[in-house]
Specification:
With about 350 residues, this protein is an alpha/beta fold. It has ten helices and twelve strands. α2 (about 55-70) packs parallel to α9 (about 290-305). The model is unreliable at about 1-15 and about 20-35 (pLDDT under 50).
């Protein structure tokens, strides 16, 4: 076992208390942690929290569907039945609290421990080595340990499609991209977005900015708004954000830009990970959805059915792992012709006729 510093030990005690307390870290109605007949699942979110309306929120939907068959808002989960599991979750206030939370679940012999976000991969690697008989799953991270399932996505494929929709919508031929951390994973979003836009119009200009280079880059909506307003000032009228909570600042920026006399927004934002179309209806062109909910539900189902396997699990357009969202909040914003072209491109990507660059494979 790894040696703890006094601070880490104290944090571990607090995390264990949260896991044991139940209501402090999960929803009402979960079965007792002492019911050994049920599969026990623990999920550790990143510091953005499960209510970030983006990446963490999608993972929360997945485990709630597994627990109750309903989404966090109480609506039924589509094609997902309840799996009769015991669910506990922890929202670490700081990165230092992530490892103790995982270890607390492991000490309680949970059947599956899920970590949300690539930053948790090295932490999970250490914990999983110490608990080789416990199953782990990391969202957006990669581990070669046999007891860790790596849930990864082809973000570049979904980003290509929203890039096409952006290019079909822009009136200025200038698009924006705001990333969270300046890292290869987010470059994958950016590159796919650019290639999709240029597939429609090779002359489109794309302005890109990143919020920062540390974990705080995911939780700074003020900076996200500042960058979006700067891009708007340079002519961008559609901005794709892949920045977690920071991206919500871009939603405020396009709303601030206002509407035309007929009520249509002058500028649009494209959401990410979850369907964010209704965050600011009329100002969100679409969302590049990353079906973390599907991947998380599936890994819980695998454990329940005794079919868990470590290694890399890849979710692309072919497995409904990524895509773009159309609903009542944006159906009047996107031209039917644009949707037809995006759907045609989707078929060509899944068949291999279109190869979207994976920036992480370079």
């Amino acid at each position: 076992m790894r040696k703890y510093t006094l601070l880490t030990f104290l944090v571990a005690l607090c995390a264990l208390a949260l896991v044991l307390a139940g209501p402090a870290c999960t929803t009402k109605g979960s079965s007792s942690t002492d019911d050994k007949s049920k599969i026990h699942v623990g999920i550790v979110f990143d510091i953005g929290g499960k209510d970030d309306r983006s990446f963490n929120a999608a993972a929360w939907v997945g485990v709630k569907c597994a627990e109750t068959g309903k989404r966090p808002d109480g609506t039924p989960c589509e094609n997902k039945k309840p799996l009769d599991i015991v669910l506990r979750d922890v929202e670490p206030g700081t990165p230092n609290a992530i490892e103790p939370a995982m270890r607390a679940f492991a000490e309680r012999n949970y059947d599956l421990i899920i970590g949300v976000g690539f930053a948790q991969a090295p932490i999970m690697e250490q914990v999983a080595k110490d608990y080789p008989n416990i199953r782990f799953a990391i969202v957006d991270g990669v581990s070669e340990l046999p007891n860790v399932a790596s849930l990864v996505f082809k973000e570049h494929e979904g980003s290509f499609l929203v890039g096409m929709l952006a290019a079909k919508t822009t009136k200025s031929d200038t698009l924006g991209f705001i990333g969270g951390m300046d890292i290869p994973l987010i470059h994958r979003f950016e590159t796919g977005y650019e290639e999709g836009a240029h597939a429609v119009n090779p002359n489109i200009r794309i302005i890109q900015n990143y919020v920062g280079v540390t974990d705080s880059a995911w939780n700074n909506p003020g900076k996200g708004k500042e960058l979006a307003l700067s891009q708007i000032g340079k002519g961008a009228d559609v901005i794709f954000t892949a920045a977690g909570n920071s991206g919500l600042g871009a939603f405020d920026a396009v709303e601030q830009a206002g509407t035309t006399p007929d009520g249509r927004a002058t500028h649009f934002v494209i959401g990410v990970d979850s369907d964010q179309n209704c965050v600011k209806p009329g100002f969100v062109l679409t969302s590049m959805v990353k079906r973390v909910d599907n991947a998380v539900y599936q890994i819980v189902l695998d454990v329940v059915n005794g079919q868990f396997s470590g290694g890399i699990h890849v979710y692309g357009l072919d497995k409904d792992g990524v895509g773009y969202a159309m609903d009542q909040c944006n159906q009047k914003l996107v031209q039917p012709e644009a949707i037809q072209e995006a759907e045609a491109a989707k078929q060509k990507i899944t068949s291999g006729q279109i190869k979207v660059t994976d920036a992480m494979a370079k």
